[in-house]
Amino acid sequence: MGIHYDYKSTKGNKLMEKQAKREKKLAEKKAKRLAKEDPKKQENKTPALDPNKPISLDFLTNPNKE
Fold it and tell me: Is the CB of residue 65 less than 8 Å from the CB of residue 58?
């Protein structure tokens, strides 16, 4: 019988714990998704070669000279 009297008094706390757990889980999923996407975005940031510009030996040996 004690559980019936205790249910309403602890209901709010249980709901808050459930919501916190749900938000934590969603945050972890978001962080995992962003960590997965970051390397893909970094690969796309490399500039493409300009077809009108000739490739020199200096460019081949030191491409980060810009």
Answer: yes
